[in-house]
Amino acid sequence: MTRVIGVRFRSAGKIYFFSPGKYEIKKGDHVIVETARGVEYGTVVGEPRDIEDEEVIKPLKTVLRTASTKDDEQERSNREKEKEAFRICLEKIKKHNLDMKLIDAEYTFDNNKILFYFTADGRIDFRELVKDLASVFKTRIELRQIGVRDETKIIGGYGICGRPLCCHSYLSDFVPVSIKMAKEQSLSLNPTKISGVCGRLMCCLKNEEDVYEELNRKMPGIGDFCKAKDGLEGEVSSVNILRQTLKILVEVDDEKEVHEYKLEDIEFFKKKQKKKNNGKKSAQEAEEMKELEALEKIEKQEGKSKLGDN
Q: pLDDT per residue over 59-115, tens digit each?
């Protein structure tokens, strides 16, 4: 077993393990650690704990020190300098007439490097821009192109649920999201209704996917033939996955009626035979599916987050 603490370097960023060494560290403390980018200032997000040796990525670095008042001041100073760096970079981008959108500027703790995050439709030749920025700041400059999901994660905002965006508030990693998840949850396949602020499929579709998959295994589908314990039988017209109830179109005294049953009140059901569409899908539905498949393809191509790793 190895004693570790979890450290974050940005809001809702990835958690990295470090050894607490000789220091008594608790959740919420600020620490100074050495990373691939140099010396960094991070926040401890969990109490020290023991984990299996195979879970540790070698080499496990030790905390250099707990942050002092001077370190806290330097961190605040860096945040202020980032605002000025952002403003200057915007001016330089305009001067060089580059088709790119600047998203954020970030100083490393030791001021050894400034990172500028941007989005663009294609590849950008920013070599002259880097030279110009280096002459102004007299330090190493790195420009990093990120995707629209990373852009939204940095900027933040509110989702259609009215809550702060998951990616900005707590989601440290982006998980693959597919159209299948929306289908499992009986959601509208209209891209505008299941896409987030970033224009990609909503990350929260993944949150309850396992629950919906488990519940759907037990439920009949719309169009399936069912027989209830009261002897009535008919075709399923709608289902409520979370409540585990379904409505069946039954025939009573030569009239069609819709009766609602709990799943446990169904004796058996028979799946309907799948029929070919014969081109009856509306043009709107076809267009929506085409758009959703394009979104899914883009997500697979973009892959993991492109924000700087420490």
A: 889 999 999 999 999 999 999 999 999 999 999 999 999 999 999 999 999 888 999
DSSP, residue by residue, 220-249:
PPTT-EEEETTS-EEEEEEEETTTTEEEEE
Contact 17, 48 (CB under 8 A): no
**Alpha-carbon Rg for the chain in angstroms:** 27
CATH architecture of 221-270: Roll (2.30)
* CATH class entry, domain 73-146: alpha beta
Rounded to an integer, what distance in angstroms lies between the CA atom of residue 137 and that of residue 306? Answer: 24
43: β partners: 8, 30
Q: Which of 78-82, 129-133, 138-142, 226-230 has the lowest mean pLDDT?
A: 226-230
Q: Is residue 119 left, alpha or beta, with left meaning phi > 0 and alpha meaning psi from -120 to 50?
A: beta
> Comparing C-alpha atoms, which of 201, 116, 123, 130 is closest to residue 166?
201
Residue type, 154: I
Residue found under tokens 């920013």: 126
Q: Can you give the pTM of this predicted structure?
A: 0.76
